[in-house]
From TrEMBL, chains A, B:
The chain crosses the membrane at residues 69-94, 127-146, 158-184, 204-223, 262-281, 288-309, 315-337, 421-443. It is found in: Endoplasmic reticulum membrane. GO terms for biological process: aerobic respiration; dolichol-linked oligosaccharide biosynthetic process. This is UDP-N-acetylglucosamine--dolichyl-phosphate N-acetylglucosaminephosphotransferase. It is a multi-pass membrane protein. Its EC number is 2.7.8.15.
Length: 458, 458
């Protein structure tokens, strides 16, 4: 492991030496930080994990023979590694503001900014937004850790990301404050509006808070299979990087989106490093569990990238599988259909495979609900067990597979071993994401009148 | 308790309404936030403290009959309350930067800053330093919590504040970067130097990191008596406020130090609110223990105030009692004199009072050490138990009071009940602090050729 460290420091040093005049300077540095983050996380996890069990942070892996005890909340390790790497990243990301004369007490009588063309970094006046993003992220890590420690009730923890997003929103207000959004062309034409953007004012802050609540929670509810929390986050970050590269590869630095996607990529690449290291230990059969901390942390990274990069609508497109999972869960979450205490897949120790878990209807369901369930089964969205009433000839629904995407995949492709199940979900997520990306740059321009991806429409 | 909330919101609202054109606008708002912080902390502590015991965060109070179990690490509650209040404080502290035209993607084609004279807030370009301070503070809270959870070894935890100070130092480098300090007049004259300041360059960052390490750790080692950790932090913050008011009361807004001391006061006042609430529960007999988290949090608040306000040397003057405690402990810390496992005062359940704890010398000490101990006893800095060797007539030192300021106070004034002991220490600390403050503004100007407190020397 000492070797790995040596190598990564070497790579870091090389990258820093080579990047002074490249067009992608921040990206080279971020790759170096990513490698460093991977190595640090890989170094710390095996050394720290027993300490987590010792203080009571552990869980049982229910889908394994003997239900072994696994350390929980290990996601705090990549999260803290990441945030401190991002602090050290600052001098490689932003132009320096040089105070030439000061009367003391922190005053800035004469000051200049470093030359942009020479250094190819981000303008100094974007530093505040970056710092506010890091404050939100660190708040999320802190609140996530507290949630893992104290097991906060579901209806409270749902709002933790909104609290963590306070610094991001407040600094946005003080430091940027633009709250207008583009109106799709067809709406503009239909209502014959004389303007093509609308100022949401305070509504824009509610929208940003909603994005911050949505991303962490939607990752948190698509969970419970070894490697799934980290895997889906990695797929999401790869999709976002693909989207970024659409703007970066043409090297059109005059495009208004160029900088914001370079920024997004620079934030995501080190994230991929630390998450890959976590996946190494969290993949089937898991040696560690990631905890709510990691789901919150990941979701907040995406929310920050989307908000600061001003592409939060595109961001939400990549969350389609999570949105589907949520909508699909609604009948059970809101008790329209009975919801058992656990909805994780059923583990069969004989063949070491997972089967869809089922909810048994003790009382007969309302006939309308039964009809809908049967319709869903015909659409291949459920697996039911039905019985024919001997007297009336009616069909009675006795059991149904639980309403989660994980069970649905098992209905379609199951039974599967846990790692194969995870892989199938990740592959589907990736394919849906690529589809969304293509749709974004084909249907999007048609709706809004233009695409901010200039090379595509020119 | 609902009443308290109502009242504090009322005060907050009033303060916000009244403060638009006052010279002390940030201070009025900070008083309102302070009251709010006090109320929130008072509301949360009694409701949350049992949850801390439940997850294993508790300690035994050794200086009470029956050694009751007390929840530990409660300092995380005022710390988190404080940091989120400081996020919400931002719009009341800093001028807004208004982006008038943007090409999208977070770009700022045309932007202006709000008018300083109209709003009487801090310039927008200081926002980054403030955010970096909050990042360091939040990192300290996070690392403090991890220390309390995992009981990190002494030689590692000593450096946690240095890690937490990384964002502060890095943003200082990117955003301000002035690293020169004034040379005292007598040195300048003696060496006939042609300049009156010297550029420490990288050394200045080491100095700032040292201040960040020193403040939290020095509070952490003067601990172990109900109310002492919070009490000494409150005395420190009152002394710093006294120092600030020397610069603020003359209302000389052209003084270069005016802004930095207004800033310092604005940061300290809400801190006093949340700490007072903690003291309410931590004062003798303690219902809660504060944990390392609180000591680190407090120390970091002071370090940030001193570094961002550019008066870190003055700050260190107020830490004289803590510095004395450290120097006084050195013989035992570095094993020059044997050190027992615990050095807390000895509790006598009969009279409910504390007595100096003692170290018993099993082996006879080296005669030089014995002579020094006897000298210290004559200077009233130790209490010894000696024996005369019947054969040789030599005086042998058998026992000594332990080398901590707490035991020394008990040697001087003991035995004392725990709360009286704490009060005596706090009063002494306050008196020494006021003495330092006076010395700062009388000897300081003589050493440096001028005082930045203009009204005093004019």
């Amino acid at each position: 492991m000492g070797n790995f460290f040596g190598i990564s420091f070497l790579i870091l040093a090389l990258a820093l030496l080579l990047n002074t005049h490249s067009a992608f300077q921040p990206l080279q540095t971020s790759v170096a930080f990513s490698i460093l983050g991977y190595n640090i996380t890989c170094y710390v996890i095996p050394r720290a994990k027993d300490a987590f069990i010792k203080i009571g942070l552990y869980g049982k892996d229910m889908s394994k023979k003997g239900k072994p005890i696994i350390p929980e909340t290990i996601g705090i390790i990549p999260a803290i590694t990441y945030i401190f790497l991002m602090f050290c990243f600052i001098p490689f990301l932003f132009l320096k503001f040089l105070v030439i004369d000061t009367s003391g007490g922190g005053n800035r009588e004469i000051g200049i900014s470093q030359d942009y063309d020479k250094f190819k970094l981000f303008p100094h006046n974007k530093l505040s937004s970056y710092l506010s993003g890091m404050l939100s992220l660190e708040s999320m890590i802190l609140l996530g850790l507290i949630d893992d420690l104290f097991d906060i009730r579901w209806r409270h923890k749902f709002f933790l990301p909104a609290i963590a997003s306070i610094p991001l929103l407040i600094v946005y207000y003080v430091d940027f404050g633009v709250t207008s959004i583009l109106i799709p062309n067809f709406i503009k034409n239909y209502f014959e509006l004389p303007f093509n953007n609308i100022d949401l004012k305070f509504g824009y802050y509610i929208y940003m808070a909603a994005v911050s609540i949505f991303c962490p929670n939607s990752i948190n509810i698509l969970a419970g299979v070894n490697g799934l929390e980290v895997g889906q986050s990695l797929v999401l970050s790869i999709l976002l990087l693909l989207n970024d590269s659409c703007y970066l590869i043409p090297l059109d630095k005059n495009s208004p989106s160029y900088d914001s996607h370079l920024f997004s990529a620079a934030i995501l690449i080190p994230y991929i490093g630390v998450s890959l290291a976590l996946l190494k230990f969290n993949w089937y059969p898991s040696q560690v569990f990631v905890g709510d901390t990691f789901c919150y942390f990941s979701g907040m990274v995406f929310a920050i990238v989307g908000i600061l990069g001003h592409f939060s609508k595109t961001l939400l497109l990549f969350f389609i599988p999570q949105i589907f999972n949520f909508l699909y869960s609604v009948p059970q979450l809101f008790a329209i259909i009975p919801c058992p205490r656990h909805r994780l897949p059923h583990f069969n120790p004989q063949d070491n495979k997972l089967y869809p878990s089922r909810v048994i209807f003790d009382k007969r369901l309302n006939p309308i609900k039964e009809k809908i369930l049967i319709l869903l089964e015909n659409l291949k969205l459920l697996s039911l067990i039905k019985e024919k009433d001997i007297k009336t000839g009616e069909i009675i629904v006795k059991e149904s597979s639980n309403f989660t995407i994980i069970n649905l995949i098992l209905v379609w492709f199951g039974p599967l071993r846990e790692d194969h199940l995870c892989l199938v979900i990740l592959i589907l997520q990736f394919l849906v994401g690529v589809g969304s990306l293509i749709a974004r740059h084909t249907i999007g321009p048609w709706l809004f009148g233009y695409d901010n991806l200039h090379w595509l429409v020119q």
